[in-house]
């Protein structure tokens, strides 16, 4: 299936004007060429989506669930092909591409299966005074949702919004990252195979300007996943039209290791959480706070494991290149700042950052105000700090503008510590487990954003509650009329005193 075969007319027009190349970050080889969609192209896509949205909504929960199930079937059957596109555009190993695709398939399945239960009409109590009414609430689709995605998990991350928005009855216009347009193209083409009637899910490609045009296009909501800096721009632009936004921003996720933790498991999770996907994971491990009683033993275990981790593009490599070349400078700056301010590299360090690959880097004794501790590094590095007790660990973990995910390794105090962490989600005694549980909501606090994808909350994020009060019979007490009597008012006052006036 070539790109040209699957393009829509407006996309071909745009291609005649301007295109951009998608490169393999391991080789710089061009793996695809895509149109830079203009504001007019985006508006046209949104206009088509409006018509499609009505048709899609009319299919009802069962009809949509059926199509979504077929879509996930295509993804599951052609998993290897999809993973190849992800591998070429991001550089990540096939197995990692497969992991994110499998989780995305789980989410499509969950959203399709649960949409009716979560969003369908539900009865509510009308209360005593209005007991002549039937009160119901149902969650109706918003209409057209614009989804703007990042490159680091180009299947799992945007589908966390796309699948839930579709299951809720919306049409979607999807703008993938300029680093992974081919993955976006593949997903949208697969959807079109199972929903050929109307453009319910469309693709627009390009850079930030195309995303900005989508924000201003009159969509009913923008679901954005990317950096906090871009999130702020999107929110400011969306404010002009009061377009609601869901912001899934970055993170600086901490791991807490208590004195009674399973240190083998904690070290393994730290190394995988920090280095897998070349550290380019929004909920990747960037900081660790360890109880002083187990600090030395934990650090030794992390170092031993980290020394075995190998980046590269060869079979068996643990992670690939840094996908976005500009990130190399950020990673280098963070390591340098940590080292010049008293930090020590136990693995990797000063020369860890190469032309494409970054060696795993374990930093200790890094001051808390170093950029390596405060800013999102988005590279295969981790800082490990020693704490006197877990209260200090919680305080340091929470001292961040970000609040996306967190992990606790502990026995006795695990739940308490998890509750006290100011993050949208916390995994206990396993890395990133929340991300694979489709029924759990996912989202951030502070600079990590707001709103939730996944689970019932993720479905409701793409719907508006519609309240309906239907009168079953005329009320014995007529309250909302000018012919209300003094006797009625007196009775209401008496009833209220009985119902609510107890001391
Ligand atoms: P980015 O902010 O640079 O870009 C994200 C998307 O926004 C891209 O599609 C880009 O073209 C578009 N964009 C850029 N400027 C825009 C503008 N002015 N208006 C509208 N759209 C615009 O982020 P990135 O580098 O692609 O992704 C990495 C970031 O994403 C990291 O910070 C990471 O933590 C975060 N992330 C968060 C989650 C999450 O679920 N919270 C998941 C994955 C990645």
Helix content class:
40-55%
Number of strands: 20
Overall geometric form: globular
* Low-confidence segments: 1-7
What structural class is derived from the secondary structure elements?
Answer: alpha/beta
Task: List the keywords.
503 residues; Aldehyde Dehydrogenase, Chain A, domain 2; 6-stranded mixed sheet; 18 helices; globular; binds nicotinamide-adenine-dinucleotide; Aldehyde_DH_dom; oxidoreductase activity, acting on the aldehyde or oxo group of donors, NAD or NADP as acceptor; Ald_DH_CS_CYS; Ald_DH_N; oxidoreductase
How would you describe this protein?
The structure is a single chain. The protein is built from 18 helices and 20 strands. The protein has 503 residues and is an alpha/beta fold. It has three domains: 19-249 and 455-464, Aldehyde Dehydrogenase, Chain A, domain 1; 253-433, 3-Layer(aba) Sandwich (Aldehyde Dehydrogenase, Chain A, domain 2); 473-501, no CATH class. β5 (144-148), α7 (156-167) and β6 form a beta-alpha-beta unit. α4 (60-77) crosses α8. The structure holds nicotinamide-adenine-dinucleotide. Nicotinamide-adenine-dinucleotide (NAD) binds next to α9 and α10.
